[in-house]
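ingest -> validate -> predict -> emit
validate: passed (alphabet ok, no gaps, 109 aa)
predict: started
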Amino acid sequence: LKALEENTWVHLACHGKQDPTQPYHSHFIMRDEHVTLLEIMERDVPHSKFMFLSACHTAVSDEETLDEAIHLAAGLQFLGFKGITGTLWEVNDAVAKHVIRAFYKYMFD
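emit:
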């Protein structure tokens, strides 16, 4: 969480879990702990600009409330991140590395 406060760009490569009934309990599964959307949203991230979410289901909406969804990516945008790349499906690690490499190559070329 400290990295969110100190960096302008953040890349998370982990697992993500949406909670459609309690969106603020949606979380990232880090090596040592689960970090909920609510815990992240309680932080001060004054330098936030861009976040790449290389985790499963980070931008999935509830099928019944598509226009009102609070998923991991939306919550981070509400927090202040101006650009967020998330996923709508399960991410295969072998494929993800190629997508990420192409994404950053395009960004910086």
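Residues 93-108 form the longest helix (16 residues).
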